[in-house]
Amino acid sequence: MKHKVTRAAGTGFTHLVLGGYTLLALFPILLVIINSVKSKDGIFDSPLSLPTAETWSLVGFEKVLAKSPFIHFFGNSLTVTLVSLVLILVLGAMAAWALSEYKFRGSKLLAIYMAFGIMVPIRLGTVSILELVVKLELTNTLTALILVYVAQGLPLAIMILGEFIQQVPKELKEAARCDGVGEFKIFFQIILPLIRPAVATVAVFTMVPIWNDLWFPLILAPGEETQTVTLGVQQFIGQYVTDWNAVLASLSLAVLPVLVMYVFASRQLIRGITAGAVK
Amino acid sequence: MKRAFPWHIAVFLAPAFLIYTAFSALPLLDTLRLGFFTTHDSGHQTFVGLANYIKLLTDPDWSAGFWNAMNNNIKFFLIVMFVQNPIALLLAALLSMHGVRGAKGYQTLIFLPTLLSVVIIGFIWQLILSPLWGVSEKLMGFVGLADYFQPWLGDESSALITLSLISVWQFVGVPMMLIYASLIAIPDEIIEAARIEGASSWHIFWTIRLPLILPTLGLVTILTFVGNFNAFDLIYAVKGAIAGPNYSTDLLGTFFYRTFFGYQSQIGSPTMGAAVATTMFLIILSGVGVYFYFIQRKLQRFAF
């Protein structure tokens, strides 16, 4: 009997801590979204209540969309993230395959060289990256951002994909080779489809830092034409800092796409982290 | 007979190798080189040996700013390390207990803020802590603490701590997930055996589970270290490049940015910037080195 009571108390404590922390994690985000659809009076008089018929207002969103090319920023972010992602995954898988499948002189050394970028932040090379981008006349282009993000994402992608490629049974490849199938066909038609789950995991990992980055858009592509959402919101808020409706609306606009993506990908992401961490 | 050159290997490797080399490896090497040069007004650069580093560490115009950023960065790291990771450990330990209902849901929701941009998170907290809006004051009022509210982000003595705690709030999900994964990977038999011997859950946690997840705690430490000594976005979003008030929130990342691009009356210098970046590189490299050295020792000890 006594045992049961302590057990119930323990479960209660567990849910209190976990629930409490979950609330703390969500509260700031929800607060911003709730207040972004209120009038100015609503925001200041009753910040903690849901919008009512009286305080409901979309004026913030109207202002943001009128005063800043938000949709355009969104398109830039989407282009940069998706193109970088595809390149990282395809080129990373190709390199991972070459490094784990073929043993040639210097292959170990090459693998270490490529892995170096996992621990050393690419930001530290910014001075020379900017110089290079200027020399190539790529300042204020999305191409510059894409090239840098691909270089940044490749090392981790190669390492994780390499681990999965090594688990592909030898017999599959040997059988294909016996049938005279070429190396490129083996990779693109046998290996790549087999490691799809790993590719999806790496995709989510790589996508988030690229979408959220401020540093490289600020330095390599600060022009209005090429601003990403993160930089665009940063600049917009700097300009309209006193317009609370607009600020809250722009923050909500930046948060919502990520929330929508998370609804669809959270399962994959959580499973990926849990599986990857144990290795 | 000499074998034909393996063209397929080259084709598989070349694109990744070239992009990585051109936009990551070579720029990093070139930055190390540039740190030994100085930029003249005419724009051309000459070799000056260690002069930039001596200037950075001893010239009062530079060293005050550098050591300030360095000290702040160490504080930032220590606060994040000793607040974020114990909370993560607690949450992970609770999540990994048998039969906790809704564990997946808690995980998913607590992890959510890590996916948002640091810039957005910085602005959101700036609004919440703003005395103009008064949300924090109101919330503290519910528990009778309204009088203790301060504009923490604007105060020199508390701005850095507040920013570190914002960072903790955002990223606690990452160590939580890593620790959780290693906790559930511990075989049930070990825990069962201890339980049959009569060990309490508390005892089992401290003497069996915690030692078994030490490698993960090591990984969490080094990830925190690299992330924090490279931090920039949060400070820049909330406080701008000047990292106010009075540089009290300046980190190496913002110091590097100002040195490279200049601010107010000071003109930016790529070579001085390279010297700062190289210093950051050495700090991060030594952290990573210490980590691998200890992990290596650990592995050897387990082998015996």
UniProtKB/TrEMBL annotation, chain A:
Superkingdom as given in the UniProt entry: Bacteria
Compartment(s) where it occurs, according to its Swiss-Prot or TrEMBL record: Cell inner membrane; Cell membrane
Keyword Chloroplast: no
Keyword terms, alphabetized: Cell inner membrane, Cell membrane, Membrane, Transmembrane, Transmembrane helix, Transport
Pfam families registered for this protein in UniProt: BPD_transp_1
Primary site of residence: membrane
Membrane-spanning segments: 12-34, 73-98, 110-130, 142-165, 186-211, 246-265
Membrane topology: Multi-pass membrane protein
Domain spans labelled ABC transmembrane type-1: 74-265
UniProt cross-references to InterPro entries, sorted A to Z: MetI-like, MetI-like_sf
Family in the record: Belongs to the binding-protein-dependent transport system permease family.
Protein purpose: Part of the ABC transporter complex UgpBAEC involved in sn-glycerol-3-phosphate (G3P) import. Probably responsible for the translocation of the substrate across the membrane.
Subunit structure: The complex is composed of two ATP-binding proteins (UgpC), two transmembrane proteins (UgpA and UgpE) and a solute-binding protein (UgpB).
UniProt protein name: sn-glycerol-3-phosphate transport system permease protein UgpE
Originating species: Jeongeupia naejangsanensis
Lineage, highest ranks first: Bacteria, Pseudomonadati, Pseudomonadota, Betaproteobacteria, Neisseriales
Automatic annotation (TrEMBL), chain B:
TM helices/strands, residue ranges: 76-97, 109-128, 159-183, 204-226, 272-294
Boundaries of every ABC transmembrane type-1 domain copy: 70-293
Keywords: Cell membrane, Membrane, Transmembrane, Transmembrane helix, Transport
Annotated signal peptide: none
CDD domains membership: TM_PBP2
Membrane topology annotation: Multi-pass membrane protein
InterPro entries with a match to the protein in the record: MetI-like, MetI-like_sf, UgpAE/MalFG_permease
Superkingdom field: Bacteria
Cellular compartments annotated: Cell membrane
Sequence similarity: Belongs to the binding-protein-dependent transport system permease family.
Protein name, per record: Sugar ABC transporter permease
Biological source species: Jeongeupia naejangsanensis
